[in-house]
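Following up on my earlier thread - several people asked me to post the actual chain instead of describing it. Fair enough. Here it is, all 342 residues.
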Amino acid sequence: MWRRGEATALVTLVRVEGSSYRKVGARLLVGSDGRYAGSISGGCLEAEVVRKAPWMARSGAVIKKYSTLFDDTAEIPYGLGCGGTVDLLIEPAGTLEFQTLMEALATSLDGVSHHVITWLPEPGRPLRRLVQPASTEDMEQVRSAFTETIAPPQRLIIFGAGDDAVPMVEAASLLGWRVAVVDGRPQLAHVHRFPQTCQVLVAKEFGELNRLSIGDRDALVIMTHSYEQDKAWLTGALQCRPRYLGLLGARHRSALLVSETAAAMGWSLEQVCEGLFAPVGLDLGGDGAEAIALAVIAEIQGFLNGKIGASRRMSAPMVVAQVKQGRTEAPAPGKIQSRCAL
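Reply from S.P.:
Thanks for posting it. Predicted structure:
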C-alpha cells in the first residue's frame, strides 16, 4: 500500500490512560480505497478512524482523543469498550516525516533498529520527526515528544522441517515474527511446504548458518526428531546464547541430550540447563502438531514478555536423575526413537 503510493494517512497510538487493547506505538496505515493495515484497538476504533483519518489530517498531523469515559455524544467522540483513554496521532501520507518513518519501519524487517523522536503537533507547531540509527547513544527522552525504538520483529529459528514445524511456522507468522526453518533433509526443507514469509535453509552443520547471524535476540527451537541431529544443533545453539532455546522431546531423552552435549562441550550441566527449556512448551495438554505448536509459541511469547519464569526448564539434578532412570529403558543414543511429546 505504502510502496504503491496508495496510503492516505498513518495513525499511531501515542498515549494510553487506563486500559487499552493495544500498546503505545501500535499503528494503522489507511489506504485510499478504505483498506487498512495494522490496528490501534481491538476492532472498536478501526472503522471510525479509517473513515475519518484522511479528512482529519487534511491540513496536517493532529492528535485525537478517544475514551470510554464519555458517551458517543459527549465531548470526546468515541467509546472504546476497554475502560481507557487513548491519544492517536493522525498524520497525512506523503510528507517527509511520513516517508522517513515508513522507511525505518521497512528496514526493521531486515534487522535494522532505529530510534525515533516525534514532536507531536500543537497549536502553532506542526509535527516534526527525527530518525536515527539505534547504534547511536541511548535516545534522549525529549520533553513533549513521543520517543520510541523501532526494533526488528522477533525472529524464530526452527531446527527441523517435519510436519509439526508447519503449524509452528504459521502461528509465529501470525504474530508477525520472522521465521527461519533449518534442516539437513532437502525433501523436507522445501519452500513449498512453508509460507512465503518463512526462510527455509538446507544445512547439516551449524557452520553453514553464518548468514543467519544468530544472536541474543533470537528464539530457537530444536525439533528434528533425530537424536544425533538434535545434539549437533543443540551444541551450536548453546554457543550462540540465544534469547530463548527450546528442545522438543520426552524428558528422559532431553536429559540424555543435555548430559552428552555438556560432556562434549566441556560445560557443566548447570551451564547447559541455564538457557534451555526442555521439554519445550507450556503444559497445556492436548495432542498433535497444532497443540504442540500452540504450547511452544505460547511459552516463547510469555517468556519474551516476562510473563513466565522458569517454566519447565531442566536443572542439573533433574538431568542426573533422568539419565539414571532412563539408562535401563532407552536404546543406544544413536538409535533413540522416543516419541517427541511435550
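The chain is about 30% helix and 25% strand. That should answer part of your original question.
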